[in-house]
Amino acid sequence: MALKATIHKAQLQIADMDRHVYGDHALTIARHPSETDERMMIRVLAYALNVTADDHNGRLEFTKGLSDVDEPDLWQLDLTGEVQHWIDLGQPDERRLMKAHGRARCVSVYSFASSTPVWWAGIENKLTRAPRLAVWQIPAEQSQALAALAERSMQLQISIQDGSIYVSTASASVEIHPVALKAAAE
Questions:
Q1: Coil, helix or strand for 17?
Q2: pLDDT by residue (tens digit) across 56-99?
Q3: Pairing outcome for strands 74-77 and 83-89
Q4: How many CB atoms lie within 10 A of CB 166?
Q5: What DSSP line would sit under 25-83, residue for residue?
Q6: Domain boundaries in the chain?
Q7: What is the mean pLDDT of residues 100-107?
Q8: How confident is residue 1, by pLDDT bands cut at 50, 70 and 90?
Q9: H or E stretch including 19?
Q10: Mean pLDDT throughout 109-115?
Q11: Which residues, at least 6 apart from 167, have a Cβ–Cβ distance to it below 8 Å?
C-alpha cells in the first residue's frame, strides 16, 4: 500500500520590501512521504520569494514535485500554459537545469544542503549558457532552523528587506540570508 501525502496548511503574510510585494496567501501543501520538514519549508520560502503582486502572468503554484520528475517544485504558468518561472529545490543536475532553461522564461534553484558548495563547484562551468538561471544557497543551519517552524497548520509572517528574510510565528523566528551563487541576467 502506497503512503499518502500529508496535508499542511499555511497562512502567509508576506511583506517583501525589496520587490514591493505584499499580501496574505493561504497555501495547502501536500508533503510527499519522503519529503522532510526542511524541504517542505524551503518550498514555502521559495513561494514567498517568488510570488508576484498580481496574476497577470499567471499564478505561482506548487506542482507534483517529488511525485513527477518532469515538473519542478513550483512553477508559474501563463494563461497559455507556457512556463514563466521554473523553481527547483535541492541539487538538480545540469541537464535538468538546461532543459528547464529551454522551457521557461526564468529558472531558479534553491539549494539548502551543507554539500551545496561541492555540488555547485561540479556544475557551475556547465551552466554558462543559461543566462536566465538564478541559483541560491540557503545556509544549512538557517534551513534547519526554518524546518523547526513546520507544523500541520502554520501562520507565518515573512518579511524581506535588503536581501534578508525574517520568518516568524507566534512563538519563534528565523533570519535567513540567501547566498547568490549565480544571478540571472536582467
A1: coil
A2: 888 999 987 656 677 899 999 998 999 999 999 999 999 999 99
A3: antiparallel
A4: 14
A5: EEEEEEE-TT--HHHHHHHHHHHHHH--SSSTT--EEE--GGG-TTS-SEEEE-TTS-E
A6: 6-182
A7: 96
A8: very low
A9: none
A10: 97
A11: 45, 146, 149, 156, 157, 158, 173, 174, 176
* Residue with more model confidence, 131 or 186: 131
| C-beta atoms surrounding 58 within 10 Å | 18
Which residue bears the cell 521559495?
Answer: 46
For 121, half-sphere exposure in the C-beta direction (CA atoms, 13 angstrom radius) is 4
Per the rule left: phi > 0, alpha: psi between -120 and 50, beta: everything else, 43 is alpha
Question: How many whole angstroms separate alpha carbon 75 and alpha carbon 60?
Answer: 6
Summarize the confidence of residues 157-176 as an average pLDDT: 97
Phi/psi at 69 (5° precision): -70, -15
The architecture that CATH gives domain 6-182 is: Roll (3.10)
SS3 143: helix
Q: Which residue has the cell 518550498?
A: 43
